[in-house]
Structure formats: structure tokens, C-alpha cells
Write a structure and sequence with these properties.
122 residues, alpha+beta, Arc Repressor Mutant, subunit A, three-stranded antiparallel β-sheet, three-stranded mixed β-sheet, 3 helices
Length: 122
């Protein structure tokens, strides 16, 4: 998917990818872009995050029905999730083994398996 480098996309990409691997929600990125002095609507942020995901630049992590994050680390890994704090932390790909994935229905293939380990502070 070819993405035109619009002013909004360039601004959002600059904020997303300048700090290394990170997890953002649309709302948190919208706050960042507003604080940086750019005028971008929340709808544009959502659309751009989904476009970046479709282009393979981000990975969407759905932690529950009402909460999604966008991950700049698109490599093989899983996540710890602090539900009370709304924070995701990467688990390196080699640190977790996934076994027993059922054979998918005929004519389909497993795209990926997401594991979210929900944790709380002791």
C-alpha cells in the first residue's frame, strides 16, 4: 500500500518512530501531536494508525473490546499488559513458546498468534 506523505502522516510518523519501539493508543498519540503544535483530528490519527498498520509499519494489539494499542515493533514478540495502568511491555519472541495451535479451516492460514499476559503490581 503506497502512502502519500501528507503533512499529517509525516507529523504522526515523526512522533511514532523517533523514540524506538513503543506502544501508543490513538488518544495518546493525538495528545502528543497536539502538544507538539500540530492540528490533527482524532479521526485522522485513527485513520493514519490503521493505514500504517495495513502498510506493515505498525502492529495493532487489541487488549480488550474497547482498548487497542499500536506497536512500532513489528517483529516476533508478545506482551505483558498492566490493565490498571494501561501499559504494554514487550516480551521477546524467544521468551514464550506457543504450542497446540489448531489447524485452521480449509483454505485459510494462521497469520499470527497474539499472547497478552495480564499482570498487576504485587
Amino acid at each position: 500500500m503506497g502512502l502519500r506523505p501528507t503533512r499529517q502522516r509525516v507529523a504522526l510518523a515523526g512522533l511514532l518512530f523517533r523514540q524506538g519501539d513503543r506502544h501508543v493508543s490513538a488518544e495518546s498519540l493525538h495528545d502528543e501531536v497536539t502538544k507538539a503544535g500540530f492540528e490533527v483530528s482524532l479521526a485522522t490519527v485513527y485513520n493514519t494508525l490503521h493505514q500504517f498498520t495495513e502498510a506493515g509499519l505498525l502492529q495493532q494489539v487489541v487488549v480488550d473490546a474497547g482498548r487497542s494499542y499500536f506497536d512500532t515493533n513489528i517483529g516476533d514478540h508478545q506482551h505483558f499488559y498492566y490493565a490498571d495502568e494501561g501499559e504494554l511491555i514487550d516480551i521477546p519472541g524467544a521468551a514464550i513458546a506457543i504450542a497446540g495451535v489448531p489447524t485452521p479451516p480449509k483454505g485459510t492460514a494462521v497469520e499470527r498468534v497474539d499472547v497478552i499476559v495480564r499482570i498487576k503490581r504485587a
